[in-house]
Fold:
Amino acid sequence: MTRVAIIGAHGKVAQQLMRILYDQGDDFVGIVRNDEHAEDVYRFGGEGLLLDIEREDADAIARAVAGNDAIVFAAGAGPGSGPERKATVDFEGSVKSQRAAQQAGVSRFIQVSAMGVDDPVAAGSDESWAAYVAAKRDADAELRRTALDWTILRPGSLTLEEGNGLVTVGDRLPSGSIPREDVARVIVAALAAPSTIRAQFELTSGPTPIEEALAGLGTREHERTGGRE
Ligand SMILES: NC(=O)c1ccc[n+]([C@@H]2O[C@H](COP(=O)([O-])OP(=O)(O)OC[C@H]3O[C@@H](n4cnc5c(N)ncnc54)[C@H](OP(=O)(O)O)[C@@H]3O)[C@@H](O)[C@H]2O)c1
Structure:
């Protein structure tokens, strides 16, 4: 049995994740920033923990995640937020959580990022969009520099449709979408798939069963490095 700390646990991906973890008998701590959301985490079958990642430092987050087997960073400032909160949630919140993971000795860290964030932002883009892309890009870069057993998921547009467990993964994919339920399934599968450790990949709906798609990541990494790493 695994015990997972979910940061941003009341988010729409995270709620799907809590449902799947509960169904397969895993424990989880859901980190949220208001009382009602903590109660919802209990309703999902986990432990709700109040902590605002913008207000608290890495030490406080480390205390919250200690004793878990893995951390899933699923927080985000959300579509209505301006550039400042992209920086304080999507970038600083992630980096503080990465430090917390190291302090608490929780080596497995799964980050929900977004497709295409290493690409230059189109001229004339909205200021919030540019800040969002930079925050995700820079948080991912910080995570890759750590010694954590990280996985960076970069999904396309997220939908609220029912998932079907079929995906495409790759370094760079044509733009596409994916149900949040399938992103949650990929997170759960990644927790059990060593091929996803120190792997970053884009993710959309596609033709391949999730376990098969993730197993292929290890093969591709092996081909790239000639088995030297
Ligand atoms: N929308 C897309 O098409 C798309 C595409 C690719 C990637 N993504 C990324 O995928 C991730 C998950 O998406 P989603 O739709 O599940 O997001 P979501 O529903 O907006 O959930 C994000 C969660 O983060 C929480 N949060 C924000 N600030 C916080 C803070 N200071 N302390 C603690 N928690 C905080 C929010 O809490 P509150 O409920 O209290 O605000 C919310 O529950 C996000 O990082 C998003 O950027 C989205």
